[in-house]
Amino acid sequence: MTTTVATSSSSTSLLSSAVNASQSAASVNAAANTAASSTTATDTSTSALSSLTSNFNTFLTLLTTQLKNQDPSSPMSSDTFTSELAQFASVEQQVDTNTNLKTLISLTQDGQQSTDMSLVGKTAVATTSELPLQNGSSSVSFNATTEEPIAIAVTDSNGNVVKTAELTSTVGTNTWTWNGTSDSGAQLSDGSYNIAVQTADTSGNTSDVPFTVTGTVTGVTRNGSSIYVNMGDSTIDMSDVNSFSDTSSPSTTSTSSTSSDSSSTSS
Q: Which helix (H) or strand (E) covers residue 161, if one does?
């Protein structure tokens, strides 16, 4: 059974470490979400073809000028410019091939995204520090090989601490469920938050605890070659999603650790 840890200097240090980690996660996630929502992309194939056309036109101008002003008694060899014309043609074919390949990849990705839309409504488990609060609920799961002190910190998109918890884990799978209530007792709105889970050894050294978050898929988006899963306001890279299921797995036990969250464990 999960229990609340009594306040001490070591637990305070552990909680402070978790808070710092959650604030760092807020900065990292903000940057990642900005990149994920950016629609600016460089079309390298089009740029290369435009540059090739410009260079080819310049080459023809220079060649024509050279032919007009060559010494009739010593005309230039046709081998050189014939070779250069062949090189231009070869590069043009390569650029066209890249353009066609890009179109094919785009069509494949569009088809993949259409298939991924069937994931909407399913429960997703992801390895990410983004915590989706949906319908006033979110959950985090982690494993422990021994009973150990655990500190959990949740921050908003600006890095402000909104929720903290200190627990003692049980051996096996531990699940911490948050009902969206802040430390001050206010009910927070649904959205994307940031979370860190840490533990400390007997010497007081803190370390991150690997964890997963669970949420309901509300959409699938694509930006460039990347596909993202939306869980409410949280945007999770598809590569960070571990599994999908029709329903979330039930918890075996549940105890109230604070007035605004609950924790459950199963071994």
A: strand 161-168
Return the DSSP state at 134: B
Rounded Cα–Cα distance for residues 35 and 24 (Å): 17
d(CA 174, CA 129): 17
φ and ψ of 49, to 5 deg: -65, -40
Rounded CA-CA distance 140/162 in Å is 16
SS3 138: strand
Instruction: Provide the whole-model pTM.
Output: 0.67
Q: What distance in Å separates the CA atoms of residue 134 and residue 223, rounded to the nearest whole number?
A: 24
Q: Which residue has the tokens 């590069």?
A: 91
CATH code for residues 3-37+119-266: 2.60.40.4070
Cross-strand bridge partners of residue 161: 155
Provide the 10 A C-beta neighbour count for residue 189: 10
**Quick one: which of 266, 141, 131, 133 has its CA closest to 212?**
141
Q: How far apart are CA 214 and CA 125, in angstroms?
A: 5
- Look at strands 138-144 and 212-216 and give their pairing: antiparallel
pLDDT digits (tens, 9 = 90+) for 200-256: 998 989 999 999 999 999 998 888 778 899 999 999 999 999 999 986 444 333 322
